[in-house]
Amino acid sequence: MSTEHTSAFRLVTALFLRRFVDNDLLSPHADRHESLAVLYACVVSLAVFVTFLLSTTYLSAFIQLPGTAALSALGDRFLYIGGSVTITALAALMAWDALALEPRDAAILGPLPIPARTITRAKLAAAIISGALLTVGLNAVPSVLYPLFLTLNIRGTQGSTVVRLIGGHAATVAMAGCFGFFGILALRGTLRLLLGERRFHRVSSGVQSVLVVGMVTGLLLVPTVRSHELQAWTMRTTPPAWAARPVLWYLAFNETVAGHLVCEIPVVLPPRFSSASYPKQEDRLARASYRLLLPRFAELAPLAWLALLGVTSVAFVTFLWTNRRYPGPSVSVLAQSRLGAWVRRLVERRTSEDPEAEAGFFFALQTLARSGPHRTIVAIAVAIGLTHMLIVLAQRQAPAVEPAAPLGAFGIAILLLASLLAGFSRAVAVPAEPAANWMIRSAWLGDDRRFLAGVKRAALAALVAVPLIVLLPLHVLLLGVVTALAHTLFALCFAILAMEALFLPYRKFPFACSYVPVENPKIVWPAALVGLLLVTYGYAGLERWALQTPARTTALGAALVVMVLFVKAVDRVWRRERRPIVFDDRPRQATQRLDLFEGVAIYE
Amino acid sequence: MQLRLEARSLAKYYSAIPAIRDVNLTLEAGTILGLLGPNGSGKSTTVSLVTGLREPSAGQILFNGRNIADNLADYKSRVGYVPEEAHLYTFLSGREQLELIGRLRRLPSALRTRKIMALLDLFGLIGAADQPISGYSKGMRQKILLVSALLHDPDVLILDEPESGLDLSASLVLRHLIPILAARGKLILYSSHVLDYVERLCASVVVLHRGRIVAEGPVPQLRAMMQRESSLEEIVAQLVTTVDPAGTATAIADLVALRA
Fold this sequence. Notes:
The complex is a heterodimer. By secondary structure, chain A is mostly helical.
């Protein structure tokens, strides 16, 4: 490459990197650097927090035996590797459309005297740098701390062993991260190559959503895998879950490269325990168990290299091939299925007297289905519900008898609905397209109640009725026909109640106000998660108790109906007084949040 | 009753920086008022205040003698607005976008559908009605904006560069449409940089410069004021241009020709 082209390549790469951050997603007033710093700090601090959490066992142990440490470290490493794969894959999915040349690239860069090849390579380089930065941010600190903490209380550990463990861990998680990132790039490129530009654009958003659901579910399930399960998977006594196989390859790679060193550390007991036989015996057993796994690890380890080589090659080839020309403008027609058209006609007939509610209903459905950020929020909510369902189903020992059905079986639908509705309440706060908000502002006639009613109906149809119908066969299988039907009805009432309660304090215009992020996410999100679990299982327990006798069932049904009516009445009273809606609410600046902002008059 | 829209002593400040000051406008039924001025003169701010999308920092806007802030919803129901930039919901199709606007404006279902289909047809968009707007050209988006503004038969039409991006035939249609609407008693505020258009369409113009009105009145009156028989373009250039256009053009050409 000539100097001119190198310089152009650098400039365009920097431009694409900035665009990965500035993805035109949320508030036009948001501070990009602050958002990036907060995101990066979240990733790094989460990784450090997990490391300390995992290491408490090793740090608090008075006598740490190498054999047992080697075995229990398998589960921890599986978590690190699985986290690295899924988080980098998720990052790639978030930038799904930006992973290829876009029409705006053609519009901005096309007229410049830069070869198309340089622009394509710059895009690829920007994608790689973004993935690398995320992988490093996620894994750098745990790669040093975890091996250090693991061996801190193992007497007789040499410095060179720790260094090798750190190197092995870092290499493994970096490779796993690359596998996740390039895996998504390869999948996207392959689909684009096989389907062609037009058909790919038609299925692209659907594929992205399915993959987000899959990756978030995978990320949430990774911590549930225990060391003994890994041993069984490695020894093939139970077949490993399909999605866990790549993680297992990288675990095997780590154990082959450095992980086995822990098992080779000699047992050195404190002087007053030196004659005790029990620790030594325990360590011998653990070492034997670990060493049994080593031949299988040696078999699996090359798959890690091969898989990385494979996905990287496919990603590069398909990227360079499918982006050799600038993309053309999209001319697709928004397809509507017969069912969709029938539902549309039905809703229009039912709501023709209430056009604002109709507007809210259709606009909510269109935004949830077609806008990237909204689809992602719904996908994450589905993934949370799906993870819970898989955990409950995995723990089910025997077919349940109706009155004593497991609590988890009642919780499946409730947690899914609660998660979807919580996600929906966040989604309405995100503008469908910030620059287009003026349309709604100039067209709406001052009463948001009817529009909001339509939006709620859309959520009830898409995020409550559809999941309940989909889950009905599973509920019949788990609870029996009668209980399943009753449970479905109760779940519907619960969802209506939850929806009304969530929207009680809502005083914005759905999908049309600027986005104001949560100010204190480190408190709000964990509290919301705990609240979600408490509400779900509290209600599931109540429902299971109520479904044991007809009298209790009737009482619960009546109580739910009364509560729904009460909340609706409160909502009606609260909204009677018209308050102006602030469309352009801006997030407070850091100087304001820290009280460093003196009373400067702002005239607007 | 004759419609009348009046802006009195309007001012708008953004973080204490004045965008417009002491702007007075009057629109009467059947007339088209041209709003002119260079970039940054305060045209778009004035338009956003007159549409009711922003509140003035000082002054008031009276519609038929009543302050629009007293019943903004009622006023907005009678306004059609074409903004300067064609920002639309790109994930919706043209038809869906218009359906959304029609529903928010409480148009009855049958009338709404009939109007949307007929207007899409007349603007030559019927073939693209179900395509997502992300694939529309600038001119197609501009036509959607025009249809959105006209759908509910507004009494007040506020058009900010409405001809932007339109092809020749659509441009000609617009040039004929605006006087027809004015003749039917609509109040029309027409903001544009295309002075040829404004000269043909508007009976009266207001020229803004640095947030203040520097001239207003019918074009012949402005000519008389400037004491010369010149085009509107020349008059406006004389009023608002602080640089020597020919000299600046030569300087640009000379600068462009510089080589290492």
